[in-house]
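Supplementary Note 2. Why include the ligand at all?

Several targets in our set were suspected to adopt different conformations when bound, so apo predictions alone were not considered sufficient. For every target with a known small-molecule partner we therefore ran a joint prediction. The input for 2-Phenylacrylic acid is given below.
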Amino acid sequence: MQATDPDLNPLFEPLQLGALTLPNRVLMAPLTRNRARPDGTPGELAETYYRQRAGAGLIVSEATQISPMGKGYKDTPGIHDDAHIEGWKTITDAVHEAGGRIAMQLWHVGRISHTSLLPDGAQPVSSTAKRAKTQTFTEEGFQDVSEPRALGTDEISGIVEDYVRAAANAIRAGFDMVEVHGANGYLIDQFLQDGVNDRTDAYGGDAEGRTRFLVEVVKAVAEEVGADRTGLRLSPTGHFNDMNDSDPETTFGLAYDRLSPLGLAYLHVVELFPGLDVPAEEQAILARLRERWTGRYIANGDFSAGQAAEWIGEGRADAVAFGRAYIANPDLAERFARGASLNEPDQSTFYGGGAEGYTDYPSLED
Ligand code: 8OZ
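The joint prediction is reproduced in token form.
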């Protein structure tokens, strides 16, 4: 495809991403929408929602829990039982019929949860027993997250197995790829960052210990579905969900060094979380870390089309994932190509509800 504005042409160069050939580099970021059914199967409008967005180079699904204990918000979907596989199959079929490609984002929230969302009112699990200073949305509305318990060393291999089973389920459901969610303060990030991980076993302490869980999960998932069908999302300078690391360059540098040789399909980095500033020193850390990643690199975080094309043109990223712009513009890639104006996203319909703000944003054709 050629863009009307030649400066945007880098967005429309095809891209080999692991096992997939993408027709463009305008990707849809994972977006939590809280419209799944109570049993964790996708809601009735999800098929339409994802089909409408099949023009993305790659869709990354909303974060999807790998196990009942991995759930942290009301009405998010799962991929841990047969009904989930069946439900997602109709969505992947619809995306493929419309000419698209879709990865599933595999999610365990760790301590960002509430006992009311977990089996038999269980306590959330984490790397730590410290409660996060943040809230989640439950059946009762926004509530402080519950106090977690620290996982025993002997429980960790079982969670790695949950990731592997979920990845296999995703492929069975027709997904082209999986993306391990290691970003934004959820379970993997709770192991990575030293402001949270206070363990004294082999999964805590220095960067070697804190990256161990991430590396085990990613290796095991890649062995199950193929490294060329495994992506990873990280947020090295992320503070969302009460996260902090005293030396992210060392922590994440080691993670990049350990994972680069695996030949993953891609690394997807949250460069900026909407509403949270990234100080210049953190931008510099992200830029230096980027140089240590040898595979494909997807950048995310409030990019304009022009900025995305610039990053791709300069080799700072191979593709850019758009979140809120994809909520409001089902045909975002085509709008960029044609230089069309964009619909504005409505924050009040991001999380939960029905068709409004979900499947009713017009495409150019409408
Ligand atoms: C916003 C609301 C709920 C979840 C993330 C999965 O930040 C999320 C999320 C974002 O990765």
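The first strand starts at residue 15 and ends at 17. The chain has one domain: 6-349. Comparable summaries for the other entries are listed in the accompanying table.
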